[in-house]
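WARN retry 2 of 3 for item q-0093 after timeout on previous attempt; input resubmitted unchanged.
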Amino acid sequence: MEMQESRKEEIIEIRRYLHENPELSFQEEKTAQYIVDFYKEKDVDIQRNVGNSYGIIVTIKGGKTGKTIGLRADFDALPIVENPYFNHHPQFDIDEDALLLAEKSV
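OK item q-0093 returned
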C-alpha cells in the first residue's frame, strides 16, 4: 500500500492519459507507443508488433530464480455511448493501468 501511495500521481497520470486517448481494437497505435515509452528506460525486454501489429510483450526478470508468471492486459477501448443518467463502466481500462504499475512489484 505504501508503494501505491508514493506512486499516486503517476497512477493518476496514466489513468487520465488512457481515458482521454481511447483507441478501438486493431487501432491502438498511440496506446501501444505509450506503453513502450513507459517501459523504455526500465530494465526489461520489449517485443513490439506482436499479433495484430500493436501487441506488446514486456519481459521483466525478477531477482530470484524459480517459477515464472505471466500477466496479460487488453488495451483497446470499447465504443460506448455515454449515458448521463447511468455512467458506470466496471473494469474499464483497469487492465493496462494495473499492468503498467505491476513492474515495480516484481
